[in-house]
């Protein structure tokens, strides 16, 4: 009976969780398709529905559909039941006309209610003649690999605009464009964005490719990184190229044809370096009618000011908050400067920020908190202060003002000074009491006490010892400058220390189970040590020439093989599905031993 009752409760909980979920009905399809291409239009629903109705599909022909599929999963974790279900309705369409077509929302009935999907826009492009010829050649000889060129694989840094005001945000998107099969990515070098304040825009950790039309040719594109840039000076600013190593997977042609060649394909991964073109952006200065209260804020903001109390006793603290809220360069806004009464002790303002970065720019708020302590009784006024900013959309300056506050300060406990008039400042009373002096009428005769210091041994030592110490410090400093000037020798001396510091960072990543960061730190430690120890730039070191370099420096053959084995293990592990902690521990110890041996072997 208990088992039946428990099963019934479980079913009720599952049903409750299913119906409690918000019903979502979404449509998905490629953004760009070729004229005459077949593709799928899919509607997804997280609950069971019926009577799906799709809109008129102008420019497309329905070849098949809807084909339906469903799935359901249930989890019970610590007594909490969670359940999810999904239903999909798939149509196969044929693109018959060229142009951009809007697909209106579809409808479906769920529990007697009508749910509406999102709308879609699909672009149909005519097949590029070069692209069509290339495709026909590949189909005629499927075993041969397609030639890798700048036309079918490239990277690009895209800006949403190239002409802005100083401090106005620019969205920079770093993308890869390909018509080949990508197996992964290798090393990358991002632009330094000199002249900008950069802020990362959150993007998915896994790069997903989407179709995009570039001058009549369809590419698979993926976003590598997205940033918001705030230019910090006027004029023309150049953004450096972005460099990326792309791993392309191609089918390898077999020279000899065997019986099993039709059943097994032979693929190879090719590392292809790509480099984007530098781009320029023109940054304009502000209009000449800048108000005196303008301090570089750009965007659209609101200003609010609050004070926690306006009636206190002397020596009690008051907190005043100034909040700037909106969209713009909030990170660069400076605290407002108030003209507080002279009898107020004011501490440096505390700044707190709640910011969010997106393609629309940086939004949120910056709050300045002022701690104020009135020291004397009286009635005081905190005057209003102007805050000006430049609105780039309207191309004008706007000014907001803080509130004016009146603070009543009563006499504090144990304060015998009485009430102080606020208009009478400390500056006017600080010399009081200095005009009265006692007059001495008796005779005054100065007398010497003790021995005379001048001409004694200690007198001369007081000059000789500092001079001697100065000479020693001068010689030591000259020696240190000479050693620092020898860059190669300096790098050689600190090579082992820098490598061990990298290995400590790798150990921390190992404990935190951050696999990718662990292998990156191991590689940086190995390559960095070799570069510093051999006094060779990193770009001149690679797996092809490192063997000869190490052997020429007197490194033993076995130690050289251990060095190359570490490099191979790290590069393989970065693209392998997983690696155990024991293998990572062993690699960490091997790397430390190898660097120690290299320190003794390199001549």
Write down the Rg: 37 Å
Q: Using DSSP, what is the number of strands?
A: 31
Domain module tally: 4
Low-confidence stretches: 14-20, 136-144, 418-433
Strand content: 35-45%
Broad CATH class of the largest domain: Mainly Beta
Main sheet overview = 7 strands, mixed
pLDDT averaged residue by residue: 80
> What is the CATH architecture descriptor of the largest domain?
Sandwich
Q: So what's the overall shape?
A: extended
Structural class: alpha+beta
Query: Helical element count?
Result: 8
Fraction of residues in helix: 25-40%
Q: How far apart are the first and last residues' alpha carbons, in Å?
A: 82 Å
Q: In the CATH scheme, what's the topology name of the largest domain?
A: Immunoglobulin-like
Pfam families: BatD
InterPro entries: BatD (IPR025738)
Organism: Labilibaculum euxinus
Keywords: Membrane, Signal, Transmembrane, Transmembrane helix
Outline the fold blueprint:
Blueprint: H1 2-20, E1 25-28, E2 32-34, E3 38-45, E4 50-53, E5 60-77, E6 80-95, E7 99-103, E8 107-110, E9 113-116, E10 120-125, H2 129-140, E11 153-159, E12 163-165, E13 170-178, E14 182-189, E15 196-200, E16 210-214, E17 217-231, E18 235-239, E19 243-251, E20 267-275, E21 279-284, E22 294-307, E23 311-313, E24 318-328, E25 344-346, E26 350-358, E27 361-374, E28 378-382, E29 386-391, E30 396-401, E31 405-410, H3 457-485, H4 487-511, H5 515-534, H6 546-552, H7 557-575, H8 581-601
Parallel strand pairs: 2-10, 12-21, 22-29, 23-31
Antiparallel strand pairs: 1-3, 3-6, 4-8, 5-6, 7-10, 8-9, 11-13, 13-17, 14-19, 15-17, 16-17, 18-21, 19-20, 22-24, 24-27, 25-27, 26-27, 28-31, 29-30
Helix pairs in contact: 4-5, 4-8, 5-7, 5-8, 7-8
InterPro entries: BatD
Organism: Labilibaculum euxinus
Keywords: Membrane, Signal, Transmembrane, Transmembrane helix
């Amino acid at each position: 009976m208990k088992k039946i009752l428990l099963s019934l409760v479980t079913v009720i909980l599952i049903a409750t969780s299913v119906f409690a979920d918000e019903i979502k009905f979404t449509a998905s399809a490629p953004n760009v398709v070729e004229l005459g291409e077949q593709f799928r239009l899919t509607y997804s629903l997280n609950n069971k529905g019926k009577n799906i109705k799709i809109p008129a599909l102008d420019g497309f022909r329905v070849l098949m559909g809807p084909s339906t599929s469903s799935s359901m999963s249930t989890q019970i974790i610590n007594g909490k039941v969670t359940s999810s279900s999904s239903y999909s309705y798939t149509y196969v369409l044929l693109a018959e006309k060229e142009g951009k077509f809007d697909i209106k929302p579809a409808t479906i009935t769920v529990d007697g209610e009508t749910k509406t999907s999102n709308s879609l826009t699909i672009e149909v492009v005519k097949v590029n003649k070069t692209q069509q010829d290339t495709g026909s050649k590949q189909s005629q000889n499927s075993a041969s690999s397609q030639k890798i060129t700048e036309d079918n694989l490239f990277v690009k840094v895209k800006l949403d605009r190239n002409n802005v005001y100083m401090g106005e945000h620019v969205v920079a998107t770093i993308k890869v464009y390909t018509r080949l099969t990508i197996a992964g990515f290798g090393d990358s070098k991002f632009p330094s964005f000199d002249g900008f304040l950069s802020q990362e825009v959150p993007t998915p950790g896994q790069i997903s490719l989407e179709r995009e039309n570039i001058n009549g040719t369809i590419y698979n594109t993926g976003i590598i990184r997205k940033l918001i840039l705030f230019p910090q000076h006027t004029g023309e600013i150049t953004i450096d190229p972005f460099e990326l190593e792309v791993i392309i997977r191609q089918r390898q042609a077999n020279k000899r044809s065997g019986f099993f060649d039709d059943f097994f394909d032979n693929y190879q991964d090719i590392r292809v370096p790509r480099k984007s073109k530098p781009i320029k952006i023109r940054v304009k200065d502000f209009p000449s009618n800048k108000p005196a209260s303008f301090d570089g804020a750009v965007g659209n903001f609101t200003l609010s000011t609050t004070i926690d109390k306006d009636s206190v006793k002397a020596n009690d603290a008051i907190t005043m908050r100034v909040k700037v809220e909106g969209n713009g360069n909030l990170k660069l806004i400076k605290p407002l400067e108030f003209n507080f009464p002279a009898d107020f002790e004011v501490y440096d303002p505390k700044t707190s920020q709640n910011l969010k970065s997106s393609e629309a720019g940086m939004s949120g708020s910056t709050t300045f908190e002022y701690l104020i302590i009135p020291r004397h009784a009286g009635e005081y006024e905190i005057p209003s202060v102007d805050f000006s900013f430049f609105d780039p959309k309207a191309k004008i300056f706007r000014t907001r003002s803080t509130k004016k506050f009146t603070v009543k300060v009563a006499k504090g406990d144990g304060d015998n000074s009485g009430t102080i008039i606020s208009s009478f400042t400390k500056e006017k009373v600080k010399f009081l009491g200095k005009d009265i002096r006692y007059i001495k009428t008796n005779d005054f005769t100065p007398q010497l006490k003790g021995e005379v210091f001048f001409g004694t041994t200690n007198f001369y030592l007081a000059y000789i010892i500092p001079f001697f110490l100065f000479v020693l410090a001068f010689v030591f400093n000259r020696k240190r400058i000479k050693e620092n000037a020898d860059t190669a020798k300096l790098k050689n001396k600190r090579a082992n220390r820098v490598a061990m510091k990298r290995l400590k960072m790798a150990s921390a990543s190992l404990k935190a189970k951050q696999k990718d960061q662990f292998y990156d730190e191991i590689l940086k430690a190995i390559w960095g040590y070799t570069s510093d120890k051999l006094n060779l730039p990193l770009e001149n070191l690679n797996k092809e020439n490192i063997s000869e370099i190490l052997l020429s420096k007197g490194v033993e053959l076995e130690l050289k093989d251990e060095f190359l084995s570490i490099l191979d293990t790290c590069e393989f592990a970065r693209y392998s599905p997983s690696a155990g902690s024991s293998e990572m521990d062993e690699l960490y110890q091997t790397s430390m031993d190898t660097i120690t041996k290299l320190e003794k072997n390199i001549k």
